[in-house]
Specification:
The protein is an all-alpha fold and about 230 residues long. The chain has a domain of about 140 residues. The chain is about 50% helix and about 0% strand. It has 11 helices and no strands. The longest helix has 17 residues. The N and C termini lie far apart (about 95 Å).
């Protein structure tokens, strides 16, 4: 069997290198393009993660370099983005806290949050996997929550905020609409829309009622012991 000339091998490798540079990379080969472009999502899991990123308000340039540290994404990305959103701390800081402390409960505490943020609207009558976590939270001053429990609670809170569906229905997965399914099918936010529409609506000022004017020529004496207007 004849041996290939060293020069021929050099030419072959050179040709392969040139082809790799010249041939454009398709969108299918761009790692995690679906996180930032819903049109790139090929299945419900990718659409679910896209919705989580869109809801978080975290910018692409801040998330992209941290993706390798959050694998598997379906397990860690929603939790990291939730803690970032609730604490107001940079995502990079949350990722470093996770790396240093290993457990998400430690990260929640060190980010300045209380476990209460995970249990807003959660009730003891909810089915598993939420019931055990709720009992732990209610029975102990310092509850011990596993990474899986925190992940499930984060998805429940996020799906409720994004969809507005009742928390109990999401917890029960009524008609198969689990938090993951609801997020996967959530309508993408409008361009330029706030990442927190529900909270913005709650804090919008309500026009004060116009005070009734007393009749002309008559004064309205203040009632003794009356209640102050809030």
């Amino acid at each position: 069997m004849s041996r290939l000339s060293p020069w021929l091998l050099v030419l072959v490798f050179l040709g392969l290198a040139i082809a790799a540079v010249v041939v454009p990379i398709s969108s299918d080969t761009v790692p995690y393009a679906f996180l930032f472009d819903r049109n790139e999502a090929k299945n419900d899991q990718q659409r679910f993660l896209n919705a989580v990123v869109a809801d978080s308000g975290v910018k692409k340039e801040d998330l992209q370099p941290l993706i390798p540290k959050l694998r598997p994404l379906e397990k860690h990305l929603p939790v990291a983005l939730f803690i970032t959103r609730e604490s107001g701390k940079p995502l990079a800081e949350i990722v470093e806290l996770r790396k240093a402390n290993r457990f998400w409960l430690d990260v929640v505490n060190k980010a300045g949050l209380k476990p209460k943020v995970l249990f807003e609207g959660v009730e003891g009558k909810f089915p598993e996997p939420y019931k055990a976590a709720w009992i732990e939270y209610r029975m102990k001053l310092h509850p011990e929550l596993s990474d899986d429990q925190i992940h499930d609670l984060v998805l429940l809170q996020t799906a409720h905020r994004v969809s507005g569906e009742p928390m109990e229905d999401l917890a029960k997965g009524t008609k198969g609409r689990t938090p993951e399914v609801v997020l996967a099918r959530a309508k993408p936010p409008e361009p330029g829309a706030s990442a927190e529409p529900a909270k913005a609506a709650q804090t919008s000022p309500t026009p004060a009622k116009e005070k009734a004017k007393p009749a002309k020529g008559k004064s309205t004496p203040a009632k003794k012991g009356g209640v102050r207007a809030r």
